[in-house]
Amino acid sequence: MGDRSRLCSVWLGSETGILKGVSLSRKQAFNFCNSSHLTRDQEVRALCWADPAESELLVGSVDGTVKTFSIEKGAFTETRRCGDSAEGCFTGLAALNGSALVTCVECGTLRVWRGDSSEPATELNAGKNVCRMRQSPVHTHKVATGGKENGLKIWDLERPENPVFTAKNLRDDWLDLRQPHWVKDMAFIPNSDKVVTCTGYHQVHVFDPSSPQRRPVLKAEYGEYPLTALSLAAAGNTVVVGNTHGHVALLDLRKGLVRGCLKGLAGGVRALQCHSSQPVVASCGLDRFLRIHSLEDRKLQHKVYLKSRLNCLLLSSQGLEDGGEDTQGEGATQEVKEEDEVWDTMEQVEEAVEREPKRKTTEEEDQQKKSKKKRKKGQD
Predict the structure, then answer these.
(1) What separation in angstroms does the CA of 155 have from each of 201, 259, 309, 338, 358?
(2) How many structural domains compose the chain?
(3) Within-domain flag for 367
(4) 98 with 79: CB under 8 angstroms?
(5) Could you give the CA distance from residue 166 to residue 153 in angstroms, rounded to a whole number?
(6) Where is this region: Disordered (predicted)?
(7) Could you tell me the CA-to-CA distances from 209 to 3, 127, 283 in Å, in that order?
(8) pLDDT tens-digit readout, 264-304
(9) By C-alpha distance, which of 119, 118, 206, 195 is closest to 163?
(10) Closest to 104 in 3D by CA, of 93, 114, 96
(11) Distance in angstroms (rounded) separating the CA atoms of residues 131 and 182
């Protein structure tokens, strides 16, 4: 299994609890799990790298466990309890200083775990209905949280008593009615203190904690459906957002305008991630496909069928392979062939189509009228 895992450059977590790895160079996908013991409680909801060298993965499951997966060995090496399923699913997972671990669940409990201790070293309440927790890629001790009726908050885990920034809600609308807020995802903009968020009300907001204004410094909207995920391009000037109807768009953060859309998705988007050095973005969701799009010409470079509904994805910082033909995962190809054989062996049924009676032309109608008149005269 270690030979397979070392080939993979994209990792995905599925609703069935399977960790999936994709090798774009070989156009193959692999499952890493013990299929005989799979249950619904093992659904994968969060993925992150355990170390900067990307030698291990951290996999967060619905049952509150975090598993460590070794890329070198191609197997799970450790399992630790980091919560309870009654608290809700993981909304965020991050590694802190190598050995420490940061977790956040839907009820708003954010914990820092150090060493092998079964008790958290730090625990704080980020508010109810948390939808996402993200770690700053530069200052790893800073994280952002947000959710439904729970505005953006930025926390310093070295001083966790109070958030270092709490966003203020939008101003009342033109009817003086309060505008609800629903943060679905966020990201730290590189080379600045700003944070960009997307909401369940198809909005994109940029907040600047360094300014005295706690409301968004930039506001934009995309589409009519709730936005579910976002990711920043390497340059930091473009954000990629996806919604519940499978629409993915590129927005310019300098002007708040839509630069273009990515086509091909057929289901709600669950996760997006732009590569750290290449102009590509990976997406996955309910349609069971992993897709790799170019951010330059917005063309589809890779398309891999993975058989399960996908919740999250993680890209390797190593360079992804150049585009190729559409691919299907190992095991999926055989399934498609079997399905085709079933359809080929089925008996074809032809339905009899009832045709509408041909309408008579005006000449035929005139001749019928004349013949009727002649009959009447003959009878008289």
Answers:
(1) 24, 32, 32, 52, 77
(2) 1
(3) no
(4) no
(5) 5
(6) 321-380
(7) 45, 19, 29
(8) 898 999 999 999 989 999 999 999 999 999 999 999 999 99
(9) 195
(10) 93
(11) 9
Cβ neighbours around 39 below 10 Å, total:
11
Pairing of strands 327-328, 300-305: parallel
Structural domain of residue 80, as residue ranges? 41-170
Amino acid at 188: F
Nearest Cα to 240, choosing from 168, 292, 318, 178? 292
Q: What is the largest CA-CA distance in the chain?
A: 115
What CATH number is attached to the domain comprising 88? 2.130.10.10
Model pTM score: 0.82
* Domain-embedded: residue 201: no
Q: What is the tens place of the pLDDT at every residue in 301-337?
A: 999 999 999 999 999 988 776 544 444 444 443 333 4
Which residue shows structure tokens 């995905």?
12
The reply to whether 360 falls in a domain is no
